[in-house]
Amino acid sequence: MSMELHETARALVAEGRGILAADESDGTIKKRFDSIGIESTEESRRAYRDMLFTTPGVEEYISGVILFDETIRQRADDGTPFPDLLASRGVIPGIKVDKGAKPLAHAEGETVTEGLDGLRARLGEYRGLGARFAKWRAVYTISDTHPSDYSIWTNAHALARYAALCQEAGLVPIVEPEVLQDGTHTIERSLFVTSRVLAAVYTELFDQRVDVEGTLLKPNMVLSGYEAADRAGTDEVAERTLHCFYKHVPAVVPGIVFLSGGQSDEDATANLNAMNSTGPHPWELSFSYGRALQAPALRAWGGKPENVEAGQRAFYHRAKMNGAARTGTYAPEMERETTMV
Ligand code: 13P
Q1: Which atom of ligand 1 is least distant from the CA of 261?
Q2: Which of 59, 77, 192, 245 has the smallest set of CB atoms within 10 Å of its CB?
Q3: How far is the centre of ligand 1, averaged over its atoms, from the C-alpha of 149 (Å)?
Q4: pLDDT for 140-194, tens place per residue?
């Protein structure tokens, strides 16, 4: 079992490839669809995911896809269940298993991620449906007083309980502690908070006997707050982010797969590229982007069947740009290449 977990984790961070996070919950996908003026229905959500997953050639750059509970049970236009379609193209199916961040008692403005009750049974079912890895997201906000130690340790404990259950079920856990980068904080404050969060997460993972060689970390990059007056540029972001991980992430962890967290598509690509251009590093540095892989594809598709190819071209292009960032060979000029699907 542990060999299989190690192999799956390594396959998810294979050279030049990364993960598509397409696990938006019903509320989140509705927000995305609202932005292009289309209604979120079971069929429109299925058609959108079908467009993404059937993009010709995208498996060159995409190693795995994180699905939502509804999606893992849906089928492509030709009737093939989505997990089977992905697996037939060499793309590993994954599943979001947390039930969202809920208010943390006695901690005004902070959350704890729920979903542990009944998780062992759900993981068994998801593995039967074809999932080989899972995701659980903890969320922290930065202010002068937040996050509290209480929220840091409560979320770390839940992440480790989830990770241990995943490994027992034969699924690679993606451990996602997301420090939101909204606000006016400095990059130093982001570094401090992200460091404290990671220290707690790895303490709990070890205490709960998780084999970290069969896990992936999905963190935020260390950024100045999006509303900060003087924001750090790409080189400083790469340097501070790497500094943070060198101090806190064990070298046997096979990969760090970043979330995009509201950065522009091109910033998310450029920052990843900058980190890889100073490699090699102990772990693979890759992506598990949601918005930064999907935003242009969503706009180009616009919910219209006649735009499926345009949507796929946009998705293929972003996947290719991030594939280049995996090896530090991305350059902004490549954004202007027209990509044929
Ligand atoms: P973003 O890349 O849009 O932040 O989404 C990644 C994700 O899966 C958040 O849980």
Answers
A1: 4
A2: 77
A3: 24
A4: 999 999 999 999 999 999 999 999 999 999 999 999 999 999 999 999 999 999 9
Judge whether 176 counts as a catalytic residue. Answer: yes
Each residue's pLDDT tens digit, 263-320? 999 999 999 999 999 999 999 999 999 999 999 999 999 999 999 999 999 999 999 9
- What is the phi/psi pair of residue 284, to 5°? -70, 140
Q: 162: which 2 tokens?
A: 């989830």
Among 136, 175, 265, 288, residue to substitute to test ligand 1 (most atoms within 8 Å of Cβ): 288
Tokens coding 43: 């069929």
Furthest-apart CA atoms within the chain: distance in Å:
54
What backbone torsions phi and psi does residue 172 show, to the nearest 5 degrees?
Answer: -75, 120
Residues with Cβ < 8 Å from 225, sequence gap 6 or more? 142, 181, 182, 183, 184, 185, 186, 190, 231
Q: Which two tokens stand for residue 262?
A: 């509201």
Q: Token pair of 12, please? A: 């998810």
- In this prediction, residue 337 has a pLDDT band, given cuts at 50, 70 and 90, of confident
Tokens of 134: 């899972």
Ligand 1: lining residues by beta carbon, under 6 Å? 21, 137, 176, 259-261, 289-292
* DSSP per-residue string spanning 202-214: HHHHHHTT--GGG
Catalytic residue among 135, 178, 204, 218: 218
Cβ atoms of 194 and 187 within 8 Å: the answer is no
Question: How many Å apart are CA 284 and CA 10, to the nearest integer?
Answer: 9
Distance 291 CA to ligand 1 centre (A): 6
Count of alpha carbons within 13 Å of 196, Cβ hemisphere only? 19
DSSP labels, 225-240: -TT-SS---HHHHHHH
- The protein residue with its alpha carbon nearest to ligand 1, atom 8, reads 21
How far is Cα 57 from Cα 71, in angstroms, rounded to an integer? 21
Which pTM does this prediction carry? 0.97
